[in-house]
Amino acid sequence: MTGVRMRVPERFSGPIGFANGGWFAGMAAVASGFDPAEITLRRPIPLEIELCVDGSTVRHGEELIAEMRPGHFTRDVPEFIDRDTALDAETRTLVRSSPEYGNCLVCGVDREDGYRLRPGAVARVEDTVACLWRPGHLTPLLDPADVIPATWAALDCPGVWTTDAPRDPMLLGRMTASVVLQPDLDEEFIAVGRWHAREGRKMLTSTALYSTDGQLIGHAEQVWIAITGHPVR
Fold first, then answer.
1. Number of domains in the chain
2. Does a structural domain hold residue 46?
3. How far is the C-alpha of 125 from the C-alpha of 47, rounded, in Å?
4. Would residue 232 count as lying in a domain?
5. Which of 27-41, 47-61, 132-146, 206-220 has the weakest average pLDDT?
6. pLDDT digits (tens, 9 = 90+) for 149-162
7. What number of CA atoms fall less than 13 Å from residue 92's CA on the CB side?
8. CATH number of 14's domain
9. Which residue segment(s) compose the domain that 154 sits in?
10. In the chain, which residue ranges form alpha helices assigned H by DSSP?
């Protein structure tokens, strides 16, 4: 792993011109070889800049960008939500165009080449959001090696949308995830997010990705950090 180089292309952006945290964490997980992997982000991830994976860290020169280690889960996997219920949840999504989130790879409404996830509150299931992920249009845009980072990215944003993200801005601080079954991106999936707790500036969530027949594709836990304003590249 020492000396591996990585670069996040511009297309895989999240809020305000930095890399999408889930996508980058998935890249770091692949480079680490850990599954489950725990990826801690120490600063917003720059785009189109060469980064170095050295041991258990990702750095830009001497600057620490992220840390990696084997992951351990502490919360239950969010339960399966069926397709019709997920579609109904989308009608209550809080996702909307905004300067901070409109260009996000996963949930940005201003992205024609994005993932188009629209998590919304699940009826009669407390603290839970769900939506469909239909990644078929992404297949020509991705290399085979990108499937794991793509899956991490799809497991990322449903966590932050368990709250009203533009009104209560958060950045991903830590993500622990495992891809149980590598997905076929021509299929349709159900993304589920669950809010667990708020501890000062930290928000704790968990997410899961299922096939439409209920097979677990992957799951994750996130620690989000509340901020007063998004950093600007």
1. 1
2. yes
3. 37
4. no
5. 132-146
6. 999 999 999 999 99
7. 14
8. 2.40.160.210
9. 4-226
10. 21-32, 83-90, 147-160
Residues 6+ apart with CB under 8 A from 200: none
If we measure between CA atoms, which residue out of 13, 15, 20, 41 comes closest to residue 169? Answer: 15
Domain assignment of residue 20, yes or no = yes
From 145, 142, 152, 146, select the one nearest 177 (Cα to Cα): 152
Alpha carbon of 139 to those of 47, 113, 135, 229: distances in Å? 22, 11, 7, 34
DSSP string, 131-159: EEE-GGGGGGG--GGGHHHHHHHHHHHHH
Residues written for the chain? 233
Upstream peptide bond of 149 is cis (omega within 30 degrees of 0) = no
Closest C-alpha to 105, from 49, 26, 41, 223: 26
Q: What is the distance, to the nearest Å, from the Cα of residue 187 to the centroid of all Cα atoms in its chain?
A: 19
Mean pLDDT of 184-203: 95
Q: Bridge-partner residues for 225, per DSSP?
A: 171, 202
Q: Is residue 231 domain-resident?
A: no
Mean pLDDT on 14-26 = 89
